[in-house]
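Hi all, posting the design record for the shared folder.

TITLE: backbone redesign
STEP: 1 of 1
STRUCTURE INPUT:
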């Protein structure tokens, strides 16, 4: 038994050292992030680009920034003087496609395509070719997430440690919060009356989005990202986001089953 324990500890130590090496290398590369210009690449969708500009202008603090066209991106992408944030179509391991906000570093490797560029971080935003409209409402939270994640990497707070999260079950701090779930985000037939807690409401998505936009104090709003032509086995994403602080408190990828889609009663109770 002692020998097995020693083997497990040895593996854990080796993986941890490897993970720290990875994050430290990334951290070293990003030491210039705050000094270099971050170029936000416009999509060509006038409405999305207007919202993006407004939110970046009001929220971005981590580095000097400017906006550029796709043509400008293609011209500047091989230059190490810039970082870029752009919306790209990402095909996942199940051949399903979602749009991700990606932070990339300029460099010579870009001549071989975007996928060869050094990626700082990314986060899923919406389905590809099926914008829900809600992604524009929650865009402030995604912009804040990118900045916080980049700061964490610079300060060497490793995402790699999440692999070992089974040693310590961590839950988001959601005490004294009011929860607003969109009907389209929850499991079928779930109603507010299913909960004894009086701090949970199930509303139309427009109502939930309005609560988020009015920055209601202590409000937590649901947001899911799902494909239009989904079926059992399709991937989707669940979020719980603070209305007043625009903080992503909960973010997880799931697969649709024949029985369930969206937030379930069991899951909601577990989060409280």
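Okay, here is what came back for every position:
SEQUENCE:
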């Amino acid at each position: 038994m002692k020998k097995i324990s020693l083997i497990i500890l040895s593996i854990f130590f080796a993986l941890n050292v490897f993970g720290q090496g990875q994050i430290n290398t990334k951290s070293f590369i990003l030491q210039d992030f705050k000094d270099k210009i971050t170029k936000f690449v416009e999509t060509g969708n006038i409405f999305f680009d207007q919202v993006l500009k407004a939110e970046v202008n009001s929220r971005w603090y981590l580095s000097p920034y400017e906006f550029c066209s796709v043509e400008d991106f293609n011209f500047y992408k091989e230059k190490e003087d810039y970082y870029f944030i752009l919306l790209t179509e990402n095909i996942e391991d199940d051949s399903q496609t979602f749009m991700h906000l990606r932070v990339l570093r300029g460099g010579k490797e870009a001549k071989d395509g975007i996928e060869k560029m050094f990626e700082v971080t990314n986060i899923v935003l919406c389905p590809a070719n099926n914008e829900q409209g809600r992604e524009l409402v929650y865009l402030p939270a995604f912009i804040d997430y990118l900045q916080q994640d980049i700061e964490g990497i610079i300060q060497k707070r490793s995402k790699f440690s999440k692999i070992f999260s089974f040693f310590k079950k961590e839950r988001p701090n959601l005490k004294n919060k009011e929860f607003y779930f969109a009907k389209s985000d929850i499991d079928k037939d779930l109603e507010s009356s299913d909960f004894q807690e009086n701090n949970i409401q199930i509303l139309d998505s427009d109502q939930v989005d309005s609560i988020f936009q009015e920055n209601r104090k202590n409000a937590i709003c649901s947001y899911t990202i799902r494909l239009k032509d989904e079926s059992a086995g399709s991937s989707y994403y669940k979020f719980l986001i603070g209305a007043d602080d625009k903080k992503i408190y909960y973010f997880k990828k799931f697969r649709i089953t024949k029985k369930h889609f969206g937030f379930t009663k069991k899951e909601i109770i577990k989060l409280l």
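COMMENT: The longest strand covers residues 82-91.
Let me know if anyone wants the other runs.
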